[in-house]
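Pasting as-is:
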Amino acid sequence: MHPDTHLVIQLQSVDQRISTLEREVAALPKHIAAIEKTLESHLRKLEADRAALTANQKDRKRLEGEVQVQEQKISKLRDQMLGAKNNEQYRAFQHEIEFAQNEIRKAEDRILELMSESEPLDLNVKKAEIALKAEKTAVETEKGIARDRTAADQAELDTLRAQRREAAAKLPAPVRNMYDKIHKKWHGSVIAEALDGRCSACQLVIRPQHLQDIKRGDELKTCENCGRFLFYNPPVHVEDVARVG
């Protein structure tokens, strides 16, 4: 196996870990934004329910005030009725009283409807307030975890980037340049094993002479199809292991 093979494998491993951490660091703010957006939508729903409940209570209070006004009006009309000078005046007062009583009935019916509507609203508000309190706590906890994770990822990235610079510096410039081109083309998959006469990445059958060149390891060879570096791992035989033991 060519000496640069191990450096290429090491560099690929470091690059893959760097890519994983960079994706994670980029994803964490999006995750936080998503849970904050969900929380915000729940807050808006709560505010809408609160506004509906407040409007309901205002309508009930207004109608209760109207009932009180009509009741006072009836009381005055009955007092005035006692002084009616003729049947026509008496019937006029009676008609006004009936009209006021009808207005009271309509207002009271609407009050009952509003009371019925307010019960689920009130229940929703109370439930939402409890749920939102727990959700806010969960979001703050999640944000704290994300901050800690990001800090840990950034620290690991700093270490890995230093390791990458060190590993890359050990490679000959032509190999390093070729590595960078393959890395860009195949999104981090730079080197593959020559396994069972094929490139383990693209599965192309390797020409016999090319495979022999790879096995000799005199220089780094690439796949004639996908362009990745290729290496060969000789099989380990049980007899060889026993002799070493």
